[in-house]
Amino acid sequence: MPSYTKYAAAALAVALPFCSAQTYTSCNPLNNTCSADTGLATYTFSTDFTTGNSSLANWTITDGTIEFGSDGAEFIIAERYDAPTIETDFYFFFGEVEVKMKSANGTGIVSSIVFLSDDLDEIDWEALGAYDDEIETNYFGKDNTTSYDRATYPSVTTPAEEFHTYTIIWTEEKLEWLIDGTLVRTLEYDSAVDGRNYPQTPMRVKLGIWAGGDPSESEGTIEWAGGEVDYDDVPFTMYVESVKIINYNPAETYTYTGHTGSYESIVLSNSTTNSTVSSSSSSNSSSSSSTSSSSTTSTSSNSSSTSSVAVSAASMSSVYLTPALVLALVAGLMQL
Ligand SMILES: *[C@@H]1O[C@H](CO)[C@@H](O)[C@H](O)[C@H]1NC(C)=O
Ligand SMILES: *[C@@H]1O[C@H](CO)[C@@H](O)[C@H](O)[C@H]1NC(C)=O
Ligand SMILES: *[C@@H]1O[C@H](CO)[C@@H](O)[C@H](O)[C@H]1NC(C)=O
Ligand SMILES: *[C@@H]1O[C@H](CO)[C@@H](O)[C@H](O)[C@H]1NC(C)=O
Ligand SMILES: *[C@@H]1O[C@H](CO)[C@@H](O)[C@H](O)[C@H]1NC(C)=O
Ligand SMILES: *[C@@H]1O[C@H](CO)[C@@H](O)[C@H](O)[C@H]1NC(C)=O
Ligand SMILES: *[C@@H]1O[C@H](CO)[C@@H](O)[C@H](O)[C@H]1NC(C)=O
Ligand SMILES: *[C@@H]1O[C@H](CO)[C@@H](O)[C@H](O)[C@H]1NC(C)=O
Ligand SMILES: *[C@@H]1O[C@H](CO)[C@@H](O)[C@H](O)[C@H]1NC(C)=O
């Protein structure tokens, strides 16, 4: 069964979540007591998928199979219902993620780079194969899908024909999306319903491809995806060359305390220093101040034992102007 759980449920409702099909949580800390998340204990982590299947060492395949070639990992839709997807075995908690991707061609095909937390905070890049000059950015806070004006569609040159570097820089204060090093979107904490819709809990990285334009999808989803998939055109392939992650709060585990889903409620165990030195050689890692010029927020980096993240709430008050509804989206909703 492909992971269409959320879509299956959404099809019954009028409102549609225009996020990826990979959104799912096995335990939602907002109303459950969940086991701790495994953290990325090192400050940096990288995967070079051109090295073949051994590069999946720190990833889990959650759907389908992954092929490897000179362009890296290949996520292939070879037939209907294929939706190969992988996710990191660990979570990271604020930081930077850089993905080199060549998205899949094909009407209705979605190549997605998703960061997802246990309480369904979500940060997205979604390349729609129907369009060769743009990519979608999106985000969700705590699975709040009541409004669909969060997506933007920055320009990118033929994303299905060439590799581009898609980067997210995620802090307590703002989220930035960059393409090939150029900032294309900024989301301030306060502008996301005073932070309530702001993604702020430890995330896994998920990479995958799926058919938003499958005939089984709702009308709105198919419209959003750019039209119905023509399976005569298979295979559709998304390529990922590499992934680089910087974890601003490296730790062995992340635990939600309470049910607010706020970043202040996340407790780190065995957090390590925030430096470029990996934990495996941490005997000489010093405090973050020696390697990081940024010290605008104080977190638990100086702690080597369990402690909560004591970050003062983002104080920025600038207003983020919500981007206009995208035409395709409007068209999709008007059909409902
Ligand atoms: C628990 O959270 C899930 C996911 O957000 C939600 O579907 C469910 O309604 C919640 N249950 C309660 C009792 O709040
Ligand atoms: C990688 O591929 C080789 C050869 O096909 C296979 O023997 C091995 O089990 C694979 N390793 C993983 C981690 O999938
Ligand atoms: C990656 O996987 C290897 C082999 O399983 C493991 O030793 C290592 O700790 C993992 N690294 C991270 C950052 O998860
Ligand atoms: C993408 O698909 C379109 C429509 O089928 C086709 O015209 C175009 O050549 C394809 N581009 C690539 C790079 O495969
Ligand atoms: C969900 O988001 C909408 C705006 O998109 C906001 O008006 C609403 O208050 C949010 N709900 C919660 C529970 O935060
Ligand atoms: C934290 O580190 C201590 C000492 O190295 C170790 O005994 C303990 O198992 C670690 N705890 C976790 C949750 O990794
Ligand atoms: C740690 O690194 C500093 C700066 O590079 C160096 O001066 C010092 O000798 C190192 N200490 C150890 C124990 O390696
Ligand atoms: C780690 O460094 C980044 C900037 O490089 C900073 O934003 C983050 O708050 C730091 N984290 C900790 C725990 O000091
Ligand atoms: C750790 O950081 C906190 C918050 O910035 C600070 O109050 C505390 O004194 C620091 N502790 C050490 C040992 O540096």
From TrEMBL:
Class in the EC hierarchy, top level: hydrolase
Molecular function via GO: endochitinase activity; glycosyltransferase activity
Alphabetized PROSITE patterns for the sequence: GH16_2
Domain GH16: 36-240
Membrane topology according to the record: Lipid-anchor; GPI-anchor
Signal peptide: 1-21
GO CC annotation: fungal-type cell wall; plasma membrane; side of membrane
Any one biological process term the GO annotation gives: carbohydrate metabolic process
Disordered: region residues: 274-306
UniProt keyword terms in alphabetical order: Cell membrane, Cell wall, Cell wall biogenesis/degradation, Disulfide bond, Glycoprotein, Glycosidase, Glycosyltransferase, GPI-anchor, Hydrolase, Lipoprotein, Membrane, Secreted, Signal, Transferase
Active site: E122, E126
Superkingdom of the organism of origin: Eukaryota
Location in the cell: Cell membrane; Secreted, Cell wall
Catalysed transformations (reactions): Random endo-hydrolysis of N-acetyl-beta-D-glucosaminide (1->4)-beta-linkages in chitin and chitodextrins
Annotated disulfide bonds: C27-C34
UniProt xrefs under SUPFAM superfamilies: Concanavalin A-like lectins/glucanases
EC number: 3.2.1.14
Family matches, as Pfam families: Glyco_hydro_16
Family: Belongs to the glycosyl hydrolase 16 family. CRH1 subfamily.
Function description: Dual chitinase/transglycosylase that plays a role in cell wall architecture. Chitinase and transglycosylase activities are coupled. Required for the polysaccharide cross-linking at the septa and the cell wall. More specifically, transfers chitin to 1,6-beta-glucan in the cell wall.
Full protein name: chitinase
